[in-house]
Amino acid sequence: MPPANVRIRSAELSDLDDLVALEEHSFDSDRLSRGQFRRHLDSDSAKVLVASTGPHRFLGTAVVFFRKRSGVARLYSIATHHAARGQGVGSALLGAVEQLARRRHCRALRLEVRADNPGAVRLYERLGYRRLAALAGYYEDGADGWRYEKLLDA
Which residues are within 8 A (CB) of 11 and not within 5 positions of it... i.e. 6 or more apart? Predict the structure, then answer.
């Protein structure tokens, strides 16, 4: 359960520095760049969400992609600040992404996760995601991954 005062909202241009800082803090490779975040903030086919507890307490972010005429949304990235891990922030972000995908008439949400990230794997499986495929050498540094999917109720 996320802290009671956590708010999930659409990211804004004023969040760009915090988005980039969290990305750099969370990932050693396969990072979104400042330019990519900026493009996604203005895109009809992407949505960037942030979890916060006010204007200066940035807890996490999620980036989801939508393709025209596709019933499958793709969670491209999710990250939580290290101080917020284990407090339900990731679950809250995933719930918001799922709601957004439903509103966009998607029937499923897919994602990829590093095989060496057991915390994230546990989270996805606990929330009803099922493993679809193994992805050998999927990540920039050669790490293996898993593809997961969750069917979304209408």
Answer: 19, 37, 41, 48, 49, 50, 61
User: Residues 7, 11, 45, 92: what is their CA dihedral angle, to the nearest 10 degrees?
Assistant: -20
Pairing outcome for strands 130-135 and 108-114: unpaired
**Does 141 map to a domain?**
yes
Cβ-contact 58, 91 below 8 angstroms? no
Q: Which residues of 42-74 are buried (b: 16+ CB within 10 A; e: fewer)?
A: eeeebbbbbbbbeeebbbbbbbbbbeeeeeebb
Cα–Cα distance measured from residue 50 to residue 12, given in angstroms and rounded to the nearest whole number: 9
Q: Residue range 75-95: average pLDDT?
A: 89
Q: State what percent of residues in the chain have pLDDT above 90.
A: 69
CATH label of the domain that carries residue 107:
3.40.630.30
Number of domains in the chain: 1
CA distance linking residue 36 with residue 12, whole number of Å: 14
Q: Is residue 12 part of a domain?
A: yes
User: What's residue 120's pLDDT?
Assistant: 92
Residues 76-92 have a mean pLDDT of: 87
Instruction: Please indicate, yes or no, if residue 89 is contained in any of the structural domains.
Output: yes
**Is residue 139 predicted with pLDDT exceeding 60?**
yes
